[in-house]
Write a structure and sequence with these properties.
2 copies of one chain form a homodimer. Chain A is an alpha+beta fold. Chain A contains 15 helices and 18 strands. In chain A, the strands form 4 sheets. A 7-stranded antiparallel sheet of chain A has the order 15-12-14-13-17-18-16. In chain A, strands 5-6-10-8-9 form a 5-stranded antiparallel sheet.
Chain lengths: ~450, ~450
């Protein structure tokens, strides 16, 4: 226990004895995220409101104690892991939708509102909050904002960043700040809102979020096209862009991933024989518009050599088409129990080169590397499969990972489009950023956190 | 002359004698922007490339000389004015479109590309760069990025911020940094790109911009609806939002502005008798979609009491409808030669309260205050008309301005949605931001500019 008794007493005074815990199961549970490489917290606290968060920050600041804000802990890069111990500030009690304003098209929420719950609430009013990370039934708005979560709909609708109008946040020194506001345009002072989005909980603790909403598109059509190779599927995307169609979703699933899902679901196959890649596509909007768009999608896919094209018009058949996509993550475990799950991104036009690179890595390092993801954004989940205990395979996987990241940067891409850096990808940040750029980011960090106590060890050392 | 001979010699060595000027006409010309309250530069330099900008910054840094980056000088708040003298860095020679990548839907440009020229170039390829500030035929991308320019299309398409994927910039200490890149998703490190957008040239000198493009909507329909009061027009906007239509443009023009345009164009009237407000609306997209949207727009406007509704389908009649909007700024001079031109913004649902506030100010201070603007964004240009030399009127106008800004903040709005702070609105920033927030912004400024030599005296003292 690195947290001394006087701090514990002070924390108890702030949130009450029921909301401070130091037992080992709690410290371990709140010490991990989806990366599965945790470090126990010293103490976990559950503040009820912004004033309590501020008081906790002040206590940590005065005692120079590390503190880590925590949402649902669904991140893939260790962003919520207290890797230096200290106080984990769980925002679970701050879980209310405070306001849905139909007239101004915005919502005000506390950080621990589950993303899917917010979507349900606004859709019931005919409104729409588009960002849809795969974790949307578990992850929370505060975490989505801290990591700038993406998802399939980002191609048409953008990522979390595009929906955050304003924030309330607590600085590591305890001050409460508000950034942005309830307006869609605001050029008063620096845009701290968008500096905080994606800052992985290293600059401030988000305590309130003002989100932009849009009208819900009334009609969706989901489609699936099967192709004899990934290259054919990528060509279809090129033709689609050339036809100036912007689908709401444009997901690619490669043959390895398809095989794993088929095996997991215990079916012989999910697509016609000879399918090495499928595209899942969705168009949405007014009825009169989506039919025309779906037709253009079909033409583009058939021109690119699709061997099968399915169109789902009702909700049940839409869900059936999406099922394959949703089952990929659990299914990959049939290949090996562990994966190095990367979310690289390249300029759209360079996607074929990214797949060429992955092919090279498969051969060079004798690894299974199923790929799937948001091909419209150039954002592909590259899963390097590893068998725990197989040290040689793990070594090869690490080498492949390094080659992948170097290759992506050479393609003018980025090593992370969605998951962030956390501590998992820290050592690769210099591949993409110069020392001058990293030094500047560290000075920005110091402007918020002079003593480096907020979520230390993330992004930088 | 506050710049000493050795610095002049050094600057001449960097850019060549042809591109350093200290004559008074040049110093004065490059010492003003559209605010018309200038301060002469000490010296003006025209670098040819990023390396020269970096060398200039280093020279200014080492001599602690103020420097001010300058685009086309069309800003309304003094952002490009060298209010502390020093070196004006005109980016006029860095005016090339470096790349338009159709496959990746992006463009790479130098800062002094005129916004309208970029639009023409990408539209010729069937692509679209939506941000459309009124100055688009004069202003340049670098300035648009520095100020986060908006425009009528922001309601549907967003402001400049939503289109900037990456930047190259020179720090006030001379280092060249790159932020973001050619990908639409990137969560590696802090989002410095969007911190620089709208930072009014106070953090870094932008030397290259990577812009996201979208497919050009093939069809536009422009409409005009006339109403017996501003309140009726605002009701139409409410009904539109309720009907879930997102027009590409949604501009309101009040009766005072209309009268000024009619007088300026020497016509009896521009709308049916009894018109106190018009809405200009545009829908765009695929043909099959825009007809349906236009129908919904018409229903909403008629339900809200429109006395006339016009629909322009061809380009000539579209331009005719837009003409009134374009002529407002020059026309207001028929009321008085000078205006305090504000760009306040409130949450959409509070627009009626904003107009009530302006009515109160008109009466209380006996002033003409024509209003027009981007009603869909809640962003209204409130023009307080003043007669130069009429000291009493000018005093009343300043009081009205203060009341306006306080009122807007009380309505949960912002004192500037488009024009920024510069030095013109500096004293009002504390109305909207707390001292803690301003102090934090100053620390961020210091992280970029430790000696406060880049565009000093803007936003903060």
């Amino acid at each position: 226990m690195a947290v001394d008794t006087s701090l514990l007493t002070r924390l108890t005074g702030i949130v009450g004895a029921d909301y401070v815990r130091t037992d080992e199961p709690t410290r371990v549970t709140y010490g991990t995220d989806a990366l599965k490489q945790g470090h126990p917290a010293d103490v976990v606290v559950w503040p009820a409101n912004t004033a309590e968060v501020s008081a906790i920050a002040r206590a940590c600041h005065e005692t120079r104690t590390p503190m880590v804000p925590r949402g649902a802990g669904t991140g893939y890069t260790g962003g919520a892991v207290p890797s230096h111990g200290g106080v984990v500030i769980s925002l679970e009690r701050m879980n209310r939708i405070l306001e849905i304003d139909e007239g101004s098209l915005l919502a005000v929420v506390e950080p621990h509102v589950i993303t899917g719950d917010l979507q349900d609430a606004v859709e019931a009013l005919g409104l729409f909050y588009p960002p849809d990370p795969a974790s949307l039934r578990q992850s929370v708005i505060g975490g989505n904002v801290a990591e700038c979560a993406g998802g399939p709909r980002a191609f048409k609708y953008g990522v979390t960043k595009q929906y955050v109008l304003g924030l309330e946040a607590v600085l590591p020194t305890g001050e409460i700040i508000e950034t942005g506001g309830k307006v869609v345009k605001n050029v008063v002072g620096y845009d701290l809102t968008h500096l905080l989005v994606g800052s992985e909980g290293t600059l401030a603790i988000i305590t309130k979020v003002i989100l932009r909403l849009i009208p819900k598109p009334p009609v969706q059509i989901t489609m699936r096209a099967s192709f004899p190779s990934v290259r054919h599927a990528v060509n279809a995307v090129t033709l689609l862009i050339r036809a100036r169609v912007i689908p709401a979703a444009l997901e690619l699933i490669d043959g390895d991933s398809l095989d794993a899902v088929a095996q997991h679901l215990q079916v012989r196959s999910l697509a016609p024989e000879g399918t090495a890649a499928i595209l899942l596509l969705e168009v949405d909007g007014l009825a009169e518009q989506v039919i025309g768009e779906a037709d253009r999608v079909e033409v583009a896919c058939r021109d690119a050599g699709a061997t099968e094209f399915l169109r789902a018009l009702d909700d049940a058949s839409r869900q059936e088409l999406w099922r394959v996509r949703r089952e990929i993550s659990p299914s990959l475990k049939v290949i090996t129990p562990l994966k190095f799950n990367h979310d690289v991104v390249v300029p759209k036009a360079r996607i074929p080169e990214l797949f060429d690179l992955v092919d090279v890595l498969r051969d060079r390092y004798r690894l299974r590397i199923p790929c799937f993801g948001h091909v419209g954004d150039g954002n592909i989940h590259v899963n390097i499969m590893v068998t725990p205990g197989d040290d040689d395979e793990i070594r090869r996987a690490h080498e492949a990972e390094g080659d992948l990241f170097r290759g992506v940067v050479a393609l003018e891409g980025s090593i992370s489009g969605e998951h962030g850096i956390g501590f998992a990808k820290k050592k690769y940040m210099p591949l993409e950023l110069s020392q001058d750029e990293i030094d500047l980011m560290k000075r920005v960090k110091a402007a918020f956190d002079p003593h480096g106590i907020l979520n230390p060890g993330k992004m930088f050392d």
